[in-house]
Amino acid sequence: MEPKHVVDAFGEGVAHTMAQLAMIIGLGTMLGKMLAESGGATVVASGITRFFGTERVDYAMMVAAFIIGVSVFFQVGLLLLGPIAFALARETKTPILRIGLPLAAGLSTAHGLIPPHPGPLAAIGILGADVGKTIAWSLLVVGPPVALVTGPLLARWVTPRVKVGFAGLGESASAKPSAPHTPGFGISIFTILLPVLLMLVKTAVELPWFANGAVAGTWQADFRIWAEFIGDPTVAMLVAVLFSFWSFGRACGLNSHQILRFSEDCLAPAAGVLLVIAAGGGFSRVLNDSGVGKALADVGGHLHMSPLLLGWLIAGMLRVAVGSATVSVQTAASIMLPFVQADPHINKELLVLSMGAGSLVLSHVNDGGFWLVKEYFGMDIPQTLKTWTVVETGIAVMSITLILIVNSLLPLFHHA
Known about the structure:
This protein has 19 helices and no strands. The chain is mainly alpha-helical and 416 residues long.
């Protein structure tokens, strides 16, 4: 690459990453701060602890993260549930990674495997796979056991070996509430889930049954326009933050000056995180434009193995090279398209899942998610490699193992 092209590519990568994440992370941090200062995080944590018991809060966090992660981006889910994880860790005197890693595992599994996340959705479009079948396989068969093993079970093994204190971007969630009185459990859950619900509305109107006119009435087109607007992650987070100024602010006895101060105070730690993530996005774009990913993909294309395993391997090599899970799945799908066209017996839905799994392997310094997890839980780089990278690789390896097992059993059901 020419030196100027390197600079231009870095700038484009920063711009693209910030366009997607800057407002979401800023607004998510504000929502988390309001949740903490109102005492809402403690209220939700106490409710979860009572329901699941102290010994199973990591399972509770994984389940919540997996469900919420179906409809929201990884970064949004982490910022929504992170304050609750810190409050749970404080209340139960549990190491933060024991709860934080299951949270990350649940969100990441959903992000990598389940439509409507952009990676799997792009692969479905390229390969012509069935959306419903892909969702069914990922949501009912592959996703839950993967999240269970790589979340609570792996975290219980990793946590004693990596000591992390209460620090980082999420530490404000463990602060003593400032509000005169705390919000109720119901309104706290509703405020947290509000952006999720708004994004689900957007997802619903983009489904074929709605787009093809299954919902009668002249209002359909206008409703879809507004649903797509309010369901955009940035707009949904903005609506939730504005609502939290009432539910976690005025309704709890906080005045406008306190709400403004909390909103401003939480943005200083987020600034450093944004700069690091932006640099990661720029680095990823330079690697992508340099042709490293294409070169690795060409190597993978000449290997003779199961198409599902090949798709997983190509997506994994791209992930290591360029960092972006979405780019990895999209590129791998384009490379695997001739294989699918040549062999009609390839299960396209399982191939989509195998590439989604491969796109999660070995998250490291060229992945924005790596830096967000590192900064949020206050870890250094070696600690993040020993925890987050291990969890991501565990998700990738266990997913492809399950997918290959399912694929080998399908002929038995067909014959039956």
